[in-house]
Amino acid sequence: MNRRTFIKNAGVATGAVLLAASPWLSAFSESEHTKKSIARIGVIGPGSRGQFLMSFLKKNPKTDVVAVCDVYQPSIDEALKIYPQAKVYNDYRKLLEDKNVDAIVIATPLNTHFDIAIDAFDAGKHVFCEKALAMTIEDCFNMYHKHLEAGKVFFVGQQRLYDPRYIRAMEMIHAGTFGSIEAIRTFWYRNNDWRRPVPSPELERHINWRLYNEYSKGLMTELACHQIQIGTWALREIPNKVMGHGAITHWKDGREVYDNVSCIYMFDNGVKLNFDSVISNKFYGLEEQILGNLGTVEPEKGKYYFEDIEPAPGFLQLINDIENRLFDSLPFAGTSWAPETANVNKGEYIIGERPKHDGTSLNIDAFVEAVITGKQPENVAEEGYYASALCLLGHEAIVKEEIISFPEEYKLDYLNHSSKAK
Prior knowledge:
- By secondary structure, this protein is of the alpha/beta class.
- It is 36% helix and 18% strand.
- The chain has helices at 3-10, 16-21, 48-59, 73-82, 92-96, 113-122, 137-150, 164-174, 204-207, 219-235, 314-327, 341-344, 360-373, 380-400; strands at residues 39-44, 63-69, 87-89, 103-106, 126-129, 154-156, 181-189, 241-247, 260-266, 272-278, 286-292, 295-298, 303-306, 348-349, 404-405.
- The strands form two sheets. It has a nine-stranded mixed beta sheet. The chain has a six-stranded parallel beta sheet with strand order 3-2-1-4-5-6, sandwiched between helices.
- Helix 6 (113-122) links the parallel strand 4 and strand 5.
């Protein structure tokens, strides 16, 4: 199922159930009327991620990347292979002065996001900012309110908001298909040093910025922000407390950010979301496991599982029966020969197959539609804000080794949170 087929089949303009779970899809409601329109985009930071986003912009006939900006010439050279006619800048402020640019995509190191986004709103540009939004919750909060003040479109690179697997999974969760959600387990495991080749020593921090505290919050801002957002989307609540731990246990190579982290986010109703990441073992990969009393959803795998499954195979069922007769009732811990559910329950695909790609292309396409219409889709900025704020809150809990509460002054009027900035 490709992205355009999904949007067509979903009936975004009229699909009330779909929009209830994913209101940001309303960006596509006027897509038939914008066929002859063009969004003129400037890409600030066309490195590996920036080029990845440009590859989707290139496929969209409603888009033209008219400008690129970077201080690293090899990135400019690669970007021009995708858009040869783009105007080149080495100072983002000069790009923002370009009247031919309607909107910008920010794909620079994390520590630069805030200044670029604020300046872009002041320059009257629409903004797509890669996650996380900024280095502090205060900066994320101010960036969000600058977007409201400017009246410009604001998107964050939380691509799962546009992933067909996740959209359909959330429809099912919110419809009660899996009962009440009791817990959410998330993890992201890799086995590499997260380093990139450096052509010259003085470029170490420029290229490997993710490894240093001055530029990055490590695994929390790079990975956790995606998976924490899945928890708030599923529960339609924001957690108010978090505790965590982090360390450098394997990649002792001069890096400053942790190579493994764990956090527990606590919701007011007692439900907990766990996030765990290790980058020295990749066996389990990445997943969000959303556990209801009637079933479980694994959106990344694109599958769901109900608690009630088929009877055990013949031999094991025979053993179970013998045990029942011998002891008159099952042992407290359950029959010793019974297989665990996970060993036999193969589950079902959420949308009939596992898509080959995540929601990045739809995320970018939605931004283009919003730039053309000038209309901010409902909830997309708020989801992006809280994903960033919560991962930063988790990082703070790890560093301080304390249980941290979400600061009242940085809450929005969203879901179960109420803003004090009235």
